[in-house]
Amino acid sequence: MTAGAVERFRVIYRIFAGSAAEAIRRAHDIAIEQTVEIPADVVPEGFIADEIVGQVGRAEMGERGVFDVAISYSPDSVGSELSQLLNVIFGNSSIQQGIKAIGFEPGATIAERFAGPRFGIEGVRARANRPSGGLISPVIKPQGSSPDTLAEIAFRCVAGGADIIKDDHGLADQSMAPFEKRTEAIAGAVARANAEFGMSALHFANITGAPDQLVERAFFAKDAGAGGVLLMPGLLGFEIVDRLASDPEFDLPIMTHPSFTGPFVLSPDTGFSHAMMYGTLQRLAGSDISVFPNVGGRFGFSAEECGSIADACRDPAGFGMPIFPSPGGGMSVDRAADMVAMYGEDVVYLIGGSLLRHGDKIGEAVTAMRQAVDAAAGAETA
Amino acid sequence: MTAGAVERFRVIYRIFAGSAAEAIRRAHDIAIEQTVEIPADVVPEGFIADEIVGQVGRAEMGERGVFDVAISYSPDSVGSELSQLLNVIFGNSSIQQGIKAIGFEPGATIAERFAGPRFGIEGVRARANRPSGGLISPVIKPQGSSPDTLAEIAFRCVAGGADIIKDDHGLADQSMAPFEKRTEAIAGAVARANAEFGMSALHFANITGAPDQLVERAFFAKDAGAGGVLLMPGLLGFEIVDRLASDPEFDLPIMTHPSFTGPFVLSPDTGFSHAMMYGTLQRLAGSDISVFPNVGGRFGFSAEECGSIADACRDPAGFGMPIFPSPGGGMSVDRAADMVAMYGEDVVYLIGGSLLRHGDKIGEAVTAMRQAVDAAAGAETA
What's the CATH code, domain B120-377? Predict the structure, then answer.
């Protein structure tokens, strides 16, 4: 038993309840549900009752039946696995109506046990040789294209000044472009374009597959020359992010994609806050760049929600080092000034399918976006 | 290109829209979003436009702004990875308001590419030597206990007539009961009790950890004598279920647990229907027993929602073979008659923390549950 040697971590739950008394009662239920999951009267005395069961702490009343209650848990309840940490944070209680997890305070022990981001904003900037200004990241697509077609798009985008070449998250291991061929083709094209044009663009290869294939494929991408990997924690679980971020041999930045995670944030009174899902949890897992749907695009996130995500990604007091927020959807030259005003400098701008409208001139469209972002930031343009 | 050789699969989306025209427009947006994710006017002609892009099919108007629209996709868009199948079914569109995925028709090609459940109801019954009647599954807990304490509870439960000994989903790899020691202790106790009392109880070991540890740990559990594994697809991803279900060397039944999946079903107009999340998707992944929160317990699922889950688990026309629904929460001798009336015979009844109230007499409480279920079913009691 290591009780006493560990510092507890805290989760802040927003509880929707008719009264403060009801909120506190529900908080005590959560403290049990997330740990021992047995009736309070049969909890064994001693270590389990004193340490393992969650402890209800400070409560703040909001408006109209909203109460933010902190519950602390022992790292002994977790061990050192990210999936079990998430299980304690919001496993079964995620199935309860009227509870939203909105905050996480790791404490010293959890901060020691989990690596967090390996690169963060500064590390990714160093690898991409972009010391200041927003990073431009065209997305390579569509699925159904051959590796050569995808590689040619990537080459032109690097020529145009892209910092990051991101695989579309729908490029998996389909027969039209199997993982290995696709990755070799795109990473190879990015390397050639970097050499030819004096660039340092990073190709982020999308990694999918069975659990015991994921690490292998990530290393395949690295060996093929990829400068990072794209992972979808909603589909693959968060563990793969932590696994790669904490592997010194791997040593590549990680971008996480929000596919399949929408239901966690779309309801006002269940799931996670936007900031916690796309900021806090991504940093906890070890992502360096967190992709999320941008305001004004095809998705319904508000400017306030997007701003809260960017803040959580970059908060100096957050878990590990600050990471890049990466808004995607509806990004264009016309909106560059608004986007720079909203997100500032430390941001990776995804540019998606609309780029394809430029055909062979796709590189020029990337250049135009680079210039628009730099102009908006008042920076010198190249 | 394998176009023509494949049969398309269909997803039914419930779209909340002001008019049929708006619903159809949104369906066309989904068909693009889930596949090429580029504006319609830049979709390459030929194979990509004709096969890869989703095709909007039949639409049925429900009441008050609810439209159920079928969209078909090509298996070429998927390949043979479950994560990519889920990505096409509801990856990015899960982040849109007003869309709920409620149905899935695999078609011949997807049915060939994915194994589905290896055991199903009949296979689990054969392994547990329980040819008829509901299966009784006490849950071994609480976390914080030593392997010996957990093993003793398991031993007594088998003595009392348990069919399945399920690890609590919060038993991971904590220092109080590390994965290997815990699994050896509980599986060993179940084996001894089976031998002593002439039982065939199956221990389902909870498998957690990094992606490249999961398969290894599942085989460790098998070698230690476990009769099945418990997996949490919400935390680990669905791929691990498919990976183990389709591995002939593994050859143990799989129980899936709903931790971290609540937000997928709690909102009326986003995520999945209860039946799709806890029935259809579990079968698609290869689960043999799908755990879900029971009506009347600590969670808010209605009798109708629970019934729809049980139906989706057992529907003979569903993916692969019918599987066991496993309602948990609030199960007791007093409710046995209601539960049998509601769920019938092909069900695994989870009995949780309330069992611990019986202390050393926990086996007798399991026996009482066995007898109550059998009496309610009008079956002979042992």
Answer: 3.20.20.110
Flag whether residue B235 sits within 8 Å of chain A, measured between CB atoms. Answer: yes
Residue spans per domain, chain A: 9-113, 120-376
DSSP state letter for A257: -
Could you tell me the fold of the domain covering A120-376? TIM Barrel (3.20.20)
Residues A213-236: pLDDT tens digits? 999 999 999 999 999 999 999 999
Between CA A102 and CA A306 the distance in angstroms is 15
Prior bond of A142 cis (ω within 30°): yes
Min Cα–Cα distance to chain A from B381, Å: 29
The angle, 0 to 180 degrees and rounded to 10, between the axes of the packed helices A179-197 and A211-224 is 30
Contacts B357 to A, Cβ<8 Å: 39, 41-42
With CA atoms as reference, report the closest residue to A236 among A220, A253, A213.
A213
Spell A23-41 as b/e; 16+ CB within 10 A means b. Answer: bbebbbbbbbbbbbbbeee
Does residue B5 sit at the A interface (CB-CB below 8 Å)?
Answer: no
Alpha-carbon distance B379 to nearest alpha carbon in chain A (angstroms): 31
Check: CB of residue A298 under 8 Å from CB of residue A332: no
* Whether pLDDT at B39 is above 50: yes
Helices B336-343 & B303-314, crossing angle to 10 degrees? 50
CATH 3.30.870.10 describes domain B9-113 = no
pLDDT in tens, B22-34: 999 999 999 999 9
Region A94-106 average pLDDT: 97
Q: Does A47 touch chain B (CB under 8 A)?
A: yes
